[in-house]
Amino acid sequence: MLDDAQLTAWAREALEVEIAGLQAMAQRLDHRFALAVRRLLACRGRVVVSGMGKSGHVGRKIAATLASTGTPAFFMHPAEASHGDLGMITAADVVLAISNSGESEELNTILPLIKRMGVPLVAMTGRIDSTLGRHADVVLDTSVAREACPLNLAPTASTTAQMAMGDALAVALLSARGFQPEDFARSHPGGALGRRLLTLVRDVMRPLAQTPRVPPTATLPDMMRAMSAGGLGATAIVDEQGRPVGIFTDGDLRRLIEARPGQDLRTLTAQTIMHAPPRTIRAQALAVEAAELMEQHRITSVLVVDEAGRLAGALNSHDLMRAKVI
């Protein structure tokens, strides 16, 4: 029976082979990589990524990474291209073809047609003198000394090199474009980053009609009724112009009772026991800013105001959690 040490040794050897392959590829990078990046930057259409077999699986990932980082791209299966999908390519596009051997029959069949269309061709191959390498306008060398597979057969180190080269292209392109987190969020609206960078306070706040509020002259029982009806755990205290001048929370009530044991609190008014001034945030601010405000001041509710400083709604930590902002 194989022991843990032997299994771990095989894994470590595979990783070391792949690391060595990546280090060697990094050392070989030259002006051709910069030329490839410039060709992709100049593209007025889309980057059409194509590859067969394992290279095709890598190509799908590269196309997805490019598309999500500011470079419009899609994957085209080379076999399907010979049966009509070649029509997906326009003169404004750039083709990124991937093949470790550079002799993939399905890919090489469409190379002359791509060249005839005048579409720039960037190749990613382990053999720069291959058919693919000779047809390409720019060749990126993704060769490896050997595969991580002990038989030196299964695409392992070579596909890792292709994947890494694709990531290198994407990183260079997004850096050259000045791509920002906000740009990334726009292509990932369903992800955590998208929610944090695209969700505004107005998108998740409780509207004014659902926000508990009382005047400064309201008594403690009035405030408690407003809080119970609103379900916010707090009530805003607003002046005659509708501007929030204070806030009173469940926590404030508990502290008040503890500080004045046995005292009749029913005659106390909002203006004498409210927390003033209240923490507020604009409706057009990012929801994540509201979360940061709550964390900074260790509060669970914040009042939302409009451009004139009037109460527009309210927000608490539960609202932010429901929106998956926190």
Global Rg: 31 Å
**What's the rounded overall pLDDT mean?**
90
Distinct helical segment count = 15
Distance between the termini: 48 Å
Please estimate the helix content: 40-55%
Strand order of the biggest β-sheet = 2-1-3-4-5
Low-confidence stretches: none
Class by alpha and beta content: alpha/beta
The coarse overall form would be elongated
The tally of beta strands, per DSSP, is 12
Beta-strand portion reads 15-25%
Largest sheet, in brief, is: 5 strands, parallel
Name the helix and strand elements from N-terminus to C-terminus, one letter apiece. Answer: HHEHEHEHEHEHHHHEEHEEHHEHEEH
Distinctive features:
15 helices, 4-stranded mixed sheet, 326 residues, 47% helix, 5-stranded parallel sheet, 16% strand
Characterization of this structure:
With 326 residues, this protein is of the alpha/beta class. The protein has 15 helices and 12 strands. It has helices at residues 4-28, 31-41, 54-68, 78-81, 105-116, 131-135, 157-177, 181-186, 192-198, 201-204, 220-230, 250-259, 270-273, 287-297, 317-322, and strands at 47-51, 73-75, 94-99, 121-125, 138-141, 206-207, 213-214, 234-238, 244-249, 280-282, 301-305, 311-316. The chain has a 5-stranded parallel sheet, with helices on both faces. A 4-stranded mixed sheet has the order 6-12-11-10. Strands 7-8-9 form a 3-stranded mixed sheet.
